[in-house]
Specification:
Elements lengths: L3 H12 L4 E7 L3 H12 L4 E4 L15 H14 L2 H5 L3 H7 L5 E4 L1 E6 L3 E2 L4 E2 L16 E5 L8 E4 L1 H14 L3 E3 L2 E7 L4 E7 L8 E12 L9 H7 L2 E2 L8 E9 L4 H7 L14 E6 L4 E6 L4 E9 L11 H7 L3 E2 L7 E3 L4 E4 L2 E2 L2 E3 L1 H4 E2 L7 H16 L3 H31 L4 H23 L14 H15 L4 H12 L15 E2 L12
């Protein structure tokens, strides 16, 4: 990111002397920065504090059609043409070439099979699971956009996060880095004590401010002051989340092309709906999976995630993965692997009085299926609408927000957990993952139809879909075969989508799931 962003932030920190705000936002990630931009552009007095620095390394980098649709709606509703330009890869690259990103045409999944117990060496990737040309494949490609014009993006988060902060400041927000709330007293307004520290300085200067609302956008590593946690009754409820995974991740240079690897082994089909490298790439194994998100400036985000409670698995036993990373080196931003012992965490309440938490501050579910950016942006749209509403409607919208966010997080968690149950078989994984894609596509179509952004997404509040999830888990408990699972699930899923999901005839190549995105009106 150009240095002028950091310089501009510093000048605003030193010059602003306000002490009374409409909204105080804790956390300078993408959701906090975007909310500050929207609210400031609409005339609210906004304070944003970040205890670290703006534009730092972060994961949660893969956008989706749902995320892009929400950005377009935010841009249209609040008059933000720059945000509109970021909603597709071509317009982003044209209007903001300095903001680094990667092209995403869809989701791709490749199952690398088991491990030969005799030598402990992984098998090569083989796309055909049997000799028959009509057999199921060990790969799955789900299109997210109908053509290049509507391609999604991978975000280099430090660039995007810093850009949102810059736009928020241009709109009038007071954004402070290396600053944290060390004390907070709840009341009609929230009275806070801020401590501002120079980089590397343990001591700092304190200052008292107040705000009508306090929004927690601090993400999974955010720390609230003890006084605030006690006032709102903050509690951890991680045990509500069925999935329990650990992860290591970093940014690399020199990761080899998976498309070239498929071509080298004569496994790059002529029927591919998009270039396999232009995707949120998932390399599945029996023990865990590896993501690869390729950015235009030669950096690839790589992460290995596996269920906790098992011995750590060395992904290098899988030759195809090893070849792609053999000559890769760590990017300067991550000189080594970053490790998270448990990815999942959840804390409640979503709202208490004039405290409100963004979805990204309430819970982290899992990197599988890339739900984080979309849910964070939906939170921005809902909160901006609520906080800008007249007081008679504000309370109702915030109550709906709190209930809906919790419901949606639990829905995403249940769908992801089901996929982990099926990690050892590509046909089985494909079958249950279609439940997630049906829910996501249904949400996209709802947003395209200009549905109320405050309504639950991912089929929350649809009892029939809830029962289908429960019944599918029961099928898995009964250890049905992959073929039996497909035969049972396919007719029951049909009423929830119109995208041709769970069709054995397409052999893992779903081309038309991204059509809704191109239907949205400018």
């Amino acid at each position: 990111m150009p240095n002028h962003v950091t310089h501009k932030v510093t000048r605003q920190i030193m010059s602003d002397s306000s002490t009374d705000y409409d909204v105080a936002i804790l956390g300078g990630g993408f959701s906090g920065g975007l909310l500050a931009w929207v609210l400031s552009a609409r005339g609210m007095r906004v304070l944003l504090v970040e205890r670290d620095r703006f534009g730092r390394f972060a994961i949660g980098e893969s956008s989706t059609p749902m995320a892009d649709l929400v950005m377009r709606r935010l841009a249209e509703r609040h008059g933000l043409p720059k945000l509109h330009a970021l909603s597709t890869y071509p317009t982003w690259k044209r209007d903001f070439p300095e903001l680094r990103r990667g092209k995403k045409r869809g989701f791709s999944y490749y199952h690398h099979g088991g491990v030969d117990s005799g030598e402990g060496v992984g098998r090569e990737f083989h796309d055909e699971s049997e000799a028959s040309p009509n057999a199921s494949r060990n790969s799955l490609l789900v299109t997210a956009s109908p053509n290049e014009t509507w391609a999604d993006t991978h975000w280099l988060r430090r660039d995007v996060d810093a850009f949102f902060i810059e736009q928020a400041m241009d709109a009038g927000a007071n954004c402070r880095e290396h600053t944290e709330v060390v004390d907070a007293e709840m009341g009609r307004s929230v009275r806070m004590t801020l401590c501002e520290r120079s980089a590397g300085d343990d001591d700092g200067t304190t200052r008292r401010v107040s705000a009508r609302w306090i929004v927690n956008a601090s993400g999974r590593f955010g720390v609230l002051p003890d006084s605030l946690m006690k006032s709102i009754g903050l509690r951890r409820v991680d045990d509500r989340l069925r999935t329990n995974t650990r992860s290591v991740f970093a940014h690399f240079r020199g990761v080899k092309s998976w498309t070239d690897e498929l071509r080298r082994t004569n496994q790059l089909g002529e029927d591919e709906p998009f270039d396999p490298d232009e995707a949120a790439q998932h390399h599945l194994t029996d023990e865990g999976w590896m993501w690869m998100l390729r950015l235009d400036h030669g950096v690839t985000s790589v992460g290995w995630t596996q269920p906790s409670g098992r011995d750590p698995v060395d992904w290098q036993r899988y030759p195809s993965l090893q070849r792609m990373l053999r000559e890769a080196v760590f990017d300067d931003t991550t000189p080594n692997w970053i490790s998270v012992d448990r990815v999942q965490r959840m804390q409640l309440p979503v709202r208490s009085g004039n405290y409100i938490a963004m979805p990204t501050a309430v819970a982290t579910i899992d990197p599988l299926h890339s739900t984080g950016i979309a849910h964070g942006l939906i939170g921005v749209a809902r909160l901006a609408d609520a906080l800008l509403s007249e007081s008679s409607r504000q309370s109702e919208l915030l109550q709906r927000y709190a209930v809906t966010v919790e419901q949606e997080l639990m829905r995403i968690a249940s769908l992801v957990a089901m996929c982990y149950r099926c990690l050892r078989s590509m046909p089985r994984f494909e079958a249950v993952s279609m439940l997630y894609f049906a829910a996501a596509i249904g949400s996209e179509e709802f947003l395209v139809s200009r549905g109320d952004v405050h309504s639950p997404l991912w089929f929350c509040g649809v009892p029939e879909f809830e029962r289908l999830i429960e019944q599918t888990n029961q099928q898995l408990d009964q250890t049905v075969t992959d073929a039996e699972l497909w035969e049972w699930l396919r007719p029951r899923l049909q009423s929830f989508h119109s995208a041709g999901l769970l069709d054995p005839g397409v052999r893992g190549r779903y081309r038309y799931t991204g059509e809704a995105k191109s239907s949205v009106r400018d």
